[in-house]
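Worked problem 6 (solution included).
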Amino acid sequence: MHTELIDHLVRSAPLHRGEAARVIQDVLAYFDETTEEFVRRRHRELQGQGLVNAAIFERIAGELPQRVVAPPELSQRQLRRIVYG
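Solution. The predicted structure is:
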């Protein structure tokens, strides 16, 4: 599991290996979230802050373009083509 990244975090931040691994898992899970999951989660969070739907949906619409989009799943052939041209 992302050993080099864990090592980097341990060297660059005041984290133990277990803490660094948890941070990495949290970040990966955050960016692995589908659009539908993101919209539902943000709606719950913003509703919990007392915002009404009109304001919630406006805010979510503004946040969506800033999300990192996961690449499509690639076949082994596609991966080989990336590496070898």
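Discussion: The mean pLDDT is 88.
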